[in-house]
Amino acid sequence: MTSFQTEGMRALITGAASGIGAEMARVFAASGARVALNDLDHEACEALRLSLPNPDQHSTTIFNVADSAAVAKGVVQASESIGGINAVVNCAGIWRPRDDGPIGRVTDDTWNLIIAVNLTGTFNVCREAVKLMDRQGGCSIVNLASVVAIAGWDKLSAYTASKGGVASFSRGLAVETASRGIRVNCICPGVIETPMTAATLEYSKPQVLPIGRLGRPEDIARAALFLSSDWSSFTTGVVLAVDGGFSAA
Questions:
Q1: Catalytic residue among 4, 63, 123, 159
Q2: Which of 67, 74, 171, 176 has its CB surrounded by the most CB atoms within 10 Å?
Q3: CATH 3.40.50.720 fits 10-242, yes or no
Q4: 28-53 pLDDT tens trace
Q5: 139-176 burial code (b ≥16 CB/10 A, e <16)
């Protein structure tokens, strides 16, 4: 056996229009998985789908992860479009670094929005996915948190809370679903060069990482593919830092 076992993998990837989510779609599709792309940006998702190997095997499903009713409908649609779902990667997320600290100026709207998308959105998708996956066996959910869930970061109150919640939620769900054939793991990316982080990197020079470079979207996508594949069949409840050594240092 020389490669990850992705035969028959049918993956829903949220936040797939750009950045880490888009790279997830490319890496999973290149490995042979069928993917359902979710985002609010329909045009970007469709353009990405058409660029993937065997584009007709993949689909685009548009729903807001923070809207529980839309998620309930959308996850079923995504499943039907690719012949079922046995892998989910929750990449959908937002941050508002200019509004999220210091804590004294964080508004209710900022807090509620970030928690709604990052934490409640992850919960919404997982809840519907588990309903479809229950008792299938061989299913995987990978949730994306952040290095701030491990190491903390100043002036990111809502974002830190939301991602810490994702990490803890993932552990709890892993214990709940393990006996039902569903593995749940969490990846904590470090500073990754994406459009979402570009604005912050412009005015806040990132800490020099032990590994000597910033992360790339493919670094996270490859870790997610491993956690979604049979190669990690004994791995669940893990919160994995993919951060260039930041949390270790």
A1: 159
A2: 74
A3: yes
A4: 999 999 999 999 999 999 999 999 99
A5: bbbbbbbbbbbbbebeebbbbbbbbbbbbebbbebbee
